[in-house]
Amino acid sequence: MSVRELVVLGTASQVPTRHRNHNGYLLRWDGEGLLFDPGEGTQRQMLRAGVAAHDLHRICVTHFHGDHSLGLAGVIQRINLDRVPHEITAHYPRSGQRFFDRLRYATAYRETVALTEAPVAADGVLATTSGYRLEARKLSHPVESYGYRLVEPDGRRMLPERLAAHGIKGPDVGRIQREGFLGDVTLDDVSEVRRGQRFAFVMDTRLCEGVHALAEGCDLLVIESTFLDEDVQLAADHGHLTAGQAGAVARDAGVRHLVLTHFSQRYSDPEEFERQARAAGFEGELTVAHDLQRVPVPKRQ
């Protein structure tokens, strides 16, 4: 049975707190695991969340600030210690290659795993598999930063009433799915497009074109909301979003489930982030993330 869910490993911004670890997010997408922004302490959070090194297939780093990347060294060494049998691909801004190299070889260890480096240099498609297309979009932050978007290919939904009207049943249903026609009946006559699911991961950034492009039509959007709206100028100065801005982005993009995260330690009431996102007009499902939480990708409509 396929599983599509977000496992939240950490939700703090620059400074961790007693209740919030530095960043870390695992997206389970059927049989693959994509680890986003492993900050300091990610390896331990994986243990607490029941995530193994064998669950990882891709590591996606938005940018090289410590709260988004200092956990890379431990995660990479754990992958090698556990001798993960499959290839793992790492995506990160090409401009931060020197930081990736330092983290990958921070200390001595025995390399046993094929870790493929696939740095990001521009907007575009990073990888295409049978289950998804992984894309990147540049964001607006003091250091080069990219957000990630995962898009499932569209499929087809068979319509029983149309199949019955054409007298198609049993093995013939599979035949028309494979071949696209059965006699004079085409696949379009008995089915409709089933839109593929979409996920986006948007971390440290001001409002910019890339934010909106990543969020467009998402079933699940994970987005930073470091500041509350009363600190909007502070957010802009440091290259971040407010809760209200994140809510407005999700509203305009038609997002189904919004996950707010990456909270500044200056705030003590997490519910205020939800109130401000709602005040911006977002009416879909909304989660103010906390560490070790599991958020399912919404079921198909």
Describe this structure in words.
The protein has eleven helices and 18 strands. With 301 residues, it is an alpha/beta fold. The longest helix is centred in the C-terminal third of the chain and has 11 residues, at 243-253. Strand 5, helix 4 and strand 6 form a beta-alpha-beta unit. The protein is 28% helix and 26% strand. The mean pLDDT is 96. Strands 6-5-4-3-2-1-18 form a seven-stranded mixed beta sheet. The chain has a seven-stranded mixed beta sheet with strand order 7-8-9-14-15-16-17. The chain has a two-stranded antiparallel sheet with strand order 10-13.
Number of strands: 18
Radius of gyration, in angstroms, nearest whole number: 21 Å
Please work out how many helical segments DSSP would assign. Answer: 11
Assess the beta-strand content as a share of residues.
25-35%
Please mark out the parts with pLDDT under 50 across 5 or more consecutive residues, or reply none: none
Instruction: Report, as a whole number of angstroms, the end-to-end distance.
Output: 19 Å
Structural class: alpha/beta
Report the average pLDDT across residues.
96
Helicity range: 25-40%
SSE succession? EEEHEHHEHEEEEEHHEEHEEHEHHEHEE
Order of strands across the widest beta sheet? 6-5-4-3-2-1-18
Tell me which oligomeric state these chains represent: single chain
| Main beta-sheet strand count, sense and barrel state | 7 strands, mixed
Q: Which outline best applies?
A: globular
